[in-house]
Structure formats: C-alpha cells, structure tokens
Amino acid sequence: MSTGDTGGEPGQGMLPADPDAPGQQPVATAGSEELTEPVRPAAPKRQRAASIPDGMLTVEDHLEKILRGIGPLAAYDQPLVESLGLPLHEDFVAPMDLPLFDNSAMDGYAVRAEDIASASRQRPVTLPVVGEISAGSAKPFAISAGTAVKIMTGAPIPRGADSVIPYEQTDRGNARVQIFAPTTPGQCIRRKGDDVRSGETVLTEGAVLGPREIGLLAALGAPRVKSRPRPRVVVMSTGSELREPGTHLDYDSINDGNSYMLAAAVRAAGAICYRVGAVDDKPRTFQRVLSEQLVRADLVVTSGGISKGDHDVVKQTLSALGTVEFNEVAMQPGKPQGFGRVFDEQTPIITLPGNPVSAYVSFEVFVLPAIRRMMGRTPYRRPMVHAVLAADLQSRPGVRQYVRAVFEVTHRGAKVTPLSGSGSHLVGTLAKANALIIVGEDQTALNLGDTVRTLVLDRPF
Ligand SMILES: Nc1nc2c(c(=O)[nH]1)N[C@H]1C(S)=C(S)[C@@H](COP(=O)(O)OP(=O)(O)OC[C@H]3O[C@@H](n4cnc5c(N)ncnc54)[C@H](O)[C@@H]3O)O[C@H]1N2
Ligand code: MOO
Questions:
Q1: Which of 307, 349, 396 to mutate to test the pocket of ligand 1 (most atoms within 8 A of CB)?
Q2: Which atom of ligand 2 is nearest to the CA of 331?
Q3: Residue 220 sits in which domain range?
Q4: How many separate domains does the chain show?
C-alpha cells in the first residue's frame, strides 16, 4: 500500500488553492500591495454532490471563499533566522564565490608539489619553513621554490604554493620541516568558487527556508532575505462558561482549552499567535476586545458563539456588521462556520465553532490553508495520504466526515485505525489521534481493508 501523497482533499482540483493552476489572477489584500499569487479566477459553478443538504456550503465552497478573501501578505526583508520556514520571495543570486578564495583543507604546510616529489618515510624531503598563515590572520603571502609555509585549515593558499601537506605526513617542524610523502598539485586545497559561483541562482523563489538554506544565505553575506512575514493571528475564545486553566472552576464552568489549542496550531503553522483569554458572551465586551486586538492582527480566529444558541455572541455581534457571513458547511465536525472582515481595518476573521474537536478540525481545513496563503507557502492544503482502513466505518450521507484516527506505517504499508467516539467534545480522543480519515459526502460506509484518504496531522508539508 502506498503512502504517496495524492494532492489535497477531494475536489482540490477545483480549488483556487492549486498553485499550478492556469489562468491565475492577482489577488489583493486589504491595505497591502497588489499580489500576484496563484489564485484562479472565479470558477464556473460546479456541480454539487447530489447529497449536500440545501442551504449548506460544501467544504470547498467555504474554503474557496476564505482563500479568495485572504491574500498573501506583502513581502519585505526579514532577518535571516526570522525567515525560518518562510518561502523566499525572489530568486537569490550568489553575490560572491564560495569558497571566496583558494584555502587549505588541512592543518599542515603549503608547498610546491614538485619540491617534494621524491619524499618518503625513508628519505624525507626537508624544507625551510618561511612563515605561518592561520585562518583570519593571514597576510598576503607568496612562497618561493624550495620553501614551505605553515598553514591552518581555512587560511588562504599563498601564491606560489600548489598543495598542502598535512601535519601527519611531516615531523611538524617549526624552522624546518621534514616531509615524508609526495603530493600532487591541488591536494588539500579548497578552490575558489568550486561550491558556489558568483552569479549563480542558488535558491529560487518559493524555496522554503530551513537551516541549510539560511546557512547558505549567511555564508553568501545576506543578513536579511525577502519573504512574506509570518501572519499575526489573534486567537479569541468566547463563552461565559470559560475559565483560564489553573483558576477556580464553578459548577458550570470549564477550562478554556480551545484558545490554547488554536494558539498552538497557529504557531505550528508557522504564524505568530496572540492568544486572548476567553471573552464572555456579552456583545459589547466581545466587540470591544475584538476592536482592541485589531492593531496587531493580520487575521482573527475566534472559537464559539456561532451556532443557534441564545447567547451566540460572535454570530450576533458580527452578523450585524454585515461584513461577516455565517453558514453551515456540509462537514462533521465543523458545521457552523463564519468568515468575513471586521471594522475599519477590514481585518479578516474566521469564526470557528466552539466544540473543541470542531474547532480543531475547522482549523485544519480552513485556517491552516489561509495562514499558508498569507505566508506564500504552497500547497495551501495538507496533502492526503492513502492508507488501508483497519476497521469498518459508518458515515452520514451529505456531509464530509473527518474521523479521528491513528495512522501508522507498518511493514505492510500505511494503515489507519479510526478511534471510537464521534462527539465533538471528546478532547481526550482528539489527543490520541494523529490523523483524520476523510469520508466523502457520498459515502455512507467504508470497510476494513478499503484504501482511504487520510490527513496525517502535524507532518510538515
Ligand atoms: N440547536 C442547535 N444547536 C447546535 C447546533 C445546531 O445546529 N442546532 N450545532 C451544534 C454544533 S454542530 C456545534 S459545532 C456547536 C457550535 O456551537 P458554537 O460555535 O456556538 O459554540 P458554543 O455554543 O460557544 O460552544 C459549544 C461547546 O463547546 C464548548 N466550548 C466553547 N468554547 C470552548 C473553549 N474555548 N474551550 C473548551 N470548550 C469550549 C462549550 O462549552 C460548548 O460545550 O453547536 C451545536 N449546537
Ligand atoms: O458540527 Mo459540530 O461542529 O459537530 O460539533
């Protein structure tokens, strides 16, 4: 069984998230430069799976709305280490050779190979040592025929020398050195430009900067590099029942797990998170806290308060603005969703359901792609992996199920085992899962042994 990535979730071919899609159009973020990211023009209305309940959006509909509404952030020069995990915004052309100059690969003596051609243990060649060159304290140096210069690893090769003989093949003499072996021109010399040539494109636009790339950029003298910044994501949870973990709980209150879970998920996605403690269900409080947070937000993510309850503060408050739309999405968990822009800043906001598993799955499906798009990272969506199902599964028709599961690779290939319990409150089960099995809208059962589509969580992509 293959563990091969098979692209994003079902229907991805129709999504704007496809970076290779033809006909891509610029997308602008409010207040930022015009951006030329790979988003398709509005796709012609596609056929809905027959089973999607009327009035509901498909997962693709909602994701597309979000991705069209949130553009990439403007790129600017970032300090090198800050750019870890960010994609390079433009090709990087080496401004210098690496190595920058011919230098020694060993501690030893720079010599002319022809002067020691006859050297052996029995009949060493003795040369006068006319100086010493160490890395970082070398003066321009030249040697004449029949002489040697002490040289340390990394130090520039003196003019006239064509090879380095390591200490181990000498008596390590100071004024004079006995050399026990011959060498050939070029031995133990690291040549200028034999690693990187000045003018060479060493990293191309879109390359994600990891430790090795950052090391190379520093070696090439770049203290900063142009990339899109990490999005600043404000995470707010709402609910008068919520308490800060570690504080007193009344008989009807619970710990605010979601803001921590979402904050961690934001960070794991490579963004900066500002976690706001839980806000109660009063519209005025919610509106005030939200507006105070916008100064540091490229994106706001809320949890809770968007369903049909009497105190669904997020929905009540933001519906009134008219710029945030609330919908039901044909998925489980994660049915209630909202997206739009808020206040004068027109800051994008994604409102997630409060049930913890629903909030988590919704983050995976909608917020993670949005964050990646803001950072300029592709693909936006987590690639799926095929795995063999280890137990039967039932599912409701008309909704896409995301089933918590354990994914493992055994000697027989990739296997995924669904965890029991589908309640959206089951955080214990959620923490046991490392994968989500996707059961399509038209599927009502999957059987043991079937090959199923799986999102393997936490894997870098
Ligand atoms: N009459 C209906 N009721 C509900 C429907 C529906 O269609 N009709 N949908 C259900 C579904 S599905 C979901 S999901 C939830 C979503 O509700 P909200 O987004 O309004 O979330 P809340 O009501 O605020 O909270 C739901 C649940 O989650 C707990 N919660 C909320 N925030 C946190 C947090 N930060 N940390 C931990 N737990 C949290 C909260 O206490 C509730 O138990 O609505 C269903 N209802
Ligand atoms: O659809 Mo809700 O998101 O199950 O719990």
A1: 307
A2: 1
A3: 88-98+194-227
A4: 4
Crossing angle (nearest 10°) for helices 283-293 and 313-321:
70
Q: Are 155 and 107 in contact (CB under 8 A)?
A: no
Retrieve residue 329's tokens: 């999405």
- Complex ipTM, two decimals? 0.98
Which domain CATH number covers 424? 2.40.340.10
Strands (E), 374-434: 385-389, 393-394, 400-410, 413-418
Largest CA distance in the chain: 98
Shortest-distance Cα residue to atom 41 of ligand 1: 241
Q: What is the distance between the alpha carbons of residues 297 and 231, in angstroms, rounded to a whole number?
A: 8
CATH of the domain at 204: 3.90.105.10
305 alpha carbon to ligand 1 midpoint, in Å? 7
- The sign of the dihedral angle between the CA atoms of 236, 238, 240, 244 is negative
Which residue, 283, 276, 328, is CA-closest to 303?
276
What CATH number has the domain bearing residue 160? 2.170.190.11
Asked, for residue 4, whether it belongs to a domain, the answer is no
Q: Is the pLDDT of residue 227 over 70?
A: yes
| pLDDT tens, position by position, 56-111 | 999 999 999 999 999 999 999 999 999 999 999 999 999 999 999 999 999 999 99
Q: Are residues 236 and 359 in the same domain?
A: yes
What is the distance between the alpha carbons of residues 147 and 339, in angstroms, rounded to a whole number?
Answer: 77
**Is residue 159 a part of any domain in this protein?**
yes
Amino acid identity of 263? A
Q: Is 426's C-beta closer than 6 angstroms to any atom of ligand 1?
A: no
Q: Are residues 32 and 131 in the same domain?
A: no
Distance CA 303, CA 266 (A): 13
Same domain, 215 and 236: no
**CA 356 – ligand 1 centroid, Å:** 8
In the chain, pLDDT over 90 holds for what percent of residues? 84
Tokens of 248: 């007193």
DSSP 343-376: TTTTEEEEEE-SSHHHHHHHIIIIIHHHHHHHHT
Ligand 2 mean position to 355 CA, how many Å?
7
Amino acid at 345: E
Give which of 87, 435, 86 is closest to 270, Cα–Cα.
86
Q: Token match 């596609």: residue?
A: 46
**pLDDT score for 140:** 77
